[in-house]
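Per your request, structure below.
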């Protein structure tokens, strides 16, 4: 009996942990990645687009790649190259990609993909939310054809880019504010779980020896500053894929969530109203905890399915 595949669009800014998430999604038997869209985030959109094309060619899936927003809606662009390196995916020598990018801007490519799909699409943003906000603003009539949004970003506690803000939300807080207010079914897979979802040194060695993909990821892990090879590497973006295919790994609660967009020190902070101080209707399913050992086992199994 064939497994029903969930159709996805992954909006991404590769990024070393993005590469892990993309590889897992492309090879999972229950997922059908229809499109990759790129956004300025970890590095510039030109670099994230090149990185996405390199990954698609490495994995040989032929998944279309569409270039998206070059900068946030309002605030100046600020990259995260201190975590991912100047190219975003240093450490492994990919050949220069020969595949052409999708002729449309990411926002229109998302529209086209949703319109063509017989089933509702799940959007999986694992970078800043600029493209998703633009899509929802330009094509609000297509909200009914979105199954849900499962995003990596935010925090119900502390930040990682500033004291209170997680990078993906901080990078474009106005966009994030628009997405959280969209009325769609949203799950926020934030730092409360992704900072715990590490691969240990032993896990990393095991991954290296699995296959060509494992060797590629191991090479890039040497340049990744999301944790360390000694204490454990944080697999932030992979958690969004894990939530879709294995939600039982996570403890979640539904809360009202909004984004601070005007604060001098707090821009990009996700306000997660766990004590119902604002008396607002809960709008976001918030991941609060994760079974770390089971996540590590699942992550290794996913990478083993790749080439």
């Amino acid at each position: 009996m064939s497994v029903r595949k969930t159709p996805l669009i992954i909006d991404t800014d590769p990024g070393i942990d993005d590469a892990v998430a993309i590889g897992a999604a492309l090879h999972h038997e229950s997922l059908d990645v229809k499109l990759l869209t790129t956004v300025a985030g970890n590095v510039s959109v030109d670099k994230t687009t090149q990185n996405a094309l390199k990954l698609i060619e490495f994995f040989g899936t032929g998944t279309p790649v569409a270039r998206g927003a070059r900068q946030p809606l309002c605030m100046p662009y600020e990259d995260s190259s201190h975590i991912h390196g100047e190219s975003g995916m240093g450490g492994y020598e990919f050949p220069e990609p020969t595949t052409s990018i999708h002729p449309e801007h990411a926002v229109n490519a998302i529209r086209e993909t949703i319109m063509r799909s017989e089933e509702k699409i799940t959007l999986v943003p694992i970078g800043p939310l600029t493209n998703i906000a633009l899509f929802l603003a330009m094509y609000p009539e297509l909200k009914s054809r979105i199954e849900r949004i499962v995003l990596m970003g935010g925090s119900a506690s502390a930040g990682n880019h500033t004291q209170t803000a997680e990078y993906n939300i901080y990078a474009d807080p106005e966009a994030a504010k628009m997405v959280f207010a969209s009325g769609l079914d949203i799950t926020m897979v934030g730092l409360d779980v992704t900072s715990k979802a590490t691969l240990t040194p032993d896990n990393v060695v095991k991954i290296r020896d699995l296959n060509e993909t494992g060797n590629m990821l191991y090479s890039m892990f040497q340049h990744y500053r999301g944790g360390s090879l000694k204490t454990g590497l944080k697999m932030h973006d992979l958690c969004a894929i894990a939530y879709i295919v294995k939600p039982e790994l996570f403890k979640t609660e539904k809360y009202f969530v909004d984004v601070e967009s005007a604060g001098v020190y707090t821009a990009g902070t996700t306000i997660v109203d766990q004590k119902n101080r604002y008396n607002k209707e809960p709008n976001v399913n918030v991941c609060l905890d994760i079974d770390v050992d089971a996540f590590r086992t699942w992550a290794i199994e996913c990478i083993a399915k790749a080439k």
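The two ends are 24 Å apart (CA to CA).

Regards,
D.
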